[in-house]
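Hey, why these numbers?
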Amino acid sequence: MPPNNHEDESGGHVHFLTVAEVAALMRVSKMTVYRLVHSGELPAVRVGKSFRVPEEAVHSYLDNAYFDVG
C-alpha cells in the first residue's frame, strides 16, 4: 500500500493529499486551505505538524460549493 493511502471503514482506499496538493487542485493559496481545515469546512487529519486531506473530501467540498447567481 502506498504511503499516501489508507483503508476506510468500508475497506475502500482513501488517498490523502498534502495542503500544497489541495491548494494546487483547488487553485487557491495554501493559507486558504489552512483556513478551510481550521474552520472545519474541509476535513483533515494531523500528521505531526502537517495536515493531510482526503482527496474525496476536496471533491465533495467543490461539488457542494456551487451557488446560483441569479
Remarks:
- The chain has one domain: 11-64.
- Strands lie at 5-7, 13-18, 45-47, 50-54.
- The helical segments are 19-26, 30-39, 55-64.
